[in-house]
Amino acid sequence: MEYISTRGSGPSVSSKKAIIKGIAEDGGLYVPSDFPFLGPDPFFECGQSSYADKAAKILRAFLTDYLEKELISACQAAYAENFDSPLTVPVRVFKDGTAVLELWHGPTLAFKDIALQLMPHLLSIALQSEREKYEVVILVATSGDTGKAALEGFADARGVRIFVFYPHEGVSEIQRLQMATQLGRNAGACAVQGNFDDAQNGVKQIFSDPVINKKLAGFNFRLSSANSINWGRLAPQIAYYFTGYDEMVAAGKIKRGQPILICVPTGNFGNILAAYYAIKCGLPVTRLICASNRNKVLTDFIRTGIYDRRREFYKTESPSMDILISSNLERLLFELSGRQSAVVCEWMGKVTSLGWYSIPPNALSPLQSCFYGGFADQLETLQAIREIFRNQDYLIDPHTAVGYRVLQMYREETGDSTPALLTSTASPFKFNRAVLEALGRNTSGEDEFTLLKELAIISSQPIPLRLAELKTRPELHKGICAKDEMAKVLCQFLAME
Ligand SMILES: *Cc1c(COP(=O)(O)O)cnc(C)c1O
Fold first, then answer.
1. Domain 91-106+232-431 has what CATH class?
2. Residue 237 CA: which ligand 1 atom is closest?
3. Which of 271, 422, 430 to mutate to test the pocket of ligand 1 (most atoms within 8 A of CB)?
4. 356-358 vs 306-308, strand pairing mode
5. Is 112 in the pocket of ligand 1 (CB under 6 A)?
6. pTM of the entire structure?
7. pLDDT grade, residue 403 (50/70/90)?
8. Is the CB of 470 under 6 A from ligand 1?
9. 177-233: pLDDT as tens digits
10. C-alpha of residue 323 to centroid of ligand 1, in Å
11. Shortest-distance Cα residue to atom 1 of ligand 1
């Protein structure tokens, strides 16, 4: 299978090339040239195999230039003891029938581990077989979750270095400690005096600065990115929708072939796009429910066909969904336009220059028949956490709570009682403060470790080891730099000066 750019002008490439390059030369995103048919039962020959083997089976249909044994060993290395559930992505069924797909059993306790634990293996294999002579430097700007997941995934990966910039005082103390204590000779992180946009702009400047790139090349380095527009981040996410469906069948909630709903708390549109691709491959799903927080640009888009980023940005208790430009939406637009890249270019050009675009009725109607958009505000989100804890004796994080609330709204609005799979994107321990506030505790002035303990007592669950051990691990990356020093810090990390 080949990969083509959503903007249409670049040549098609293999999946290995797409993963190495990240973004196409014309600025578009790589999409598969067609969708393999996998149907509702792709694992029927797999018996009791592990999640790793099942994931490899789904990936084989997309990453056709990788050897089967390469994919199996990459998945087995990625989905092993570093996940604290033997099922990797277990499903929990509520009394009300909702099936919750727990995607946060990896080392950083958020769903990004599923892709970022695997992607470094995929990249290393690709670099070897493409005979890349450069050493790849993965450069990341993060508002919290992605940075740690990328550090953890790429630490000690062959032929790759990883460096992360995050806003000084712009991440939670847990998130800061997670990054500052990162091990790995090839890994580094630094705080930037500024907010997330400053860190992101600094990284973008480094990417596009010809002088720095030339200097890097002189030292045999090439920059690359690990954000969710890379096909290597998206492809691994398709697999868990198939295993989640399987689990619902195994739990007796549905019969094989029976359609379901999938509800996804959404920010950059990567996770829900993977579900859309699973449908394209034959997973029986009648509706994708796109759940947003107060930054509801996607809800408005799905309801009206107008994408308008010219609006106030809100900081919410579900920070990983605080996004006004959902990059991966471009891949959906490509499908909605009937794969007409000229149309995608027009819409993307408008959102850059004017801040908005609208899609015509012939694109809006397939959008609305496949997607439902809704949003939950802070009160509704915290209420959902409280309600589920009371009724199901189960704690969810604020991102998952947004999803749960919007699923409820969908059911109330439409009367549709089709069984649903809700993706749970983070451990409640990772967002301990918001969760405790939802349960009526006053957390002001309390430090993170006290809060973790309190949450453990309330939920009768142990504090995840990866968080508990942060208290005693040495802080290795304590640097803070000014906005205009980022390139210098990177060069120092790479021992270029
Ligand atoms: C990244 C993230 C999301 C949003 O996922 P997208 O693929 O960007 O839509 C939701 N919840 C959590 C906890 C996340 O870390």
1. alpha beta
2. 7
3. 271
4. antiparallel
5. yes
6. 0.94
7. very high
8. no
9. 999 999 999 999 999 998 887 888 898 889 888 999 999 999 999 998 888 889 999
10. 10
11. 320
**CB of 108 sitting under 6 A from ligand 1:** no
DSSP 428: G
- Nearest CA among 408, 142, 410 for reference residue 267: 142
CA distances from 38 to 43, 148, 438 (A): 9, 33, 41
For the chain, the helix, strand and coil percentages under 3-state DSSP, each to the nearest 5: 45, 15, 40
* Cα 293 versus chain centre, distance: 16
Tokens 């993060």 correspond to 142
| Ligand 1 neighbour 268 (Cβ under 6 A) | yes
- 131 φ/ψ sector (left φ>0, alpha ψ -120 to 50, else beta): left
Tokens of residue 21, six digits: 């390059």
CATH architecture entry for 118-227+465-497: 3-Layer(aba) Sandwich (3.40)
Give the residue carrying structure tokens 């920010």: 267
CB 165 within 8 A of CB 189: yes
Each domain of the chain, given as residue ranges in start order, spans: 91-106+232-431, 118-227+465-497, 432-463
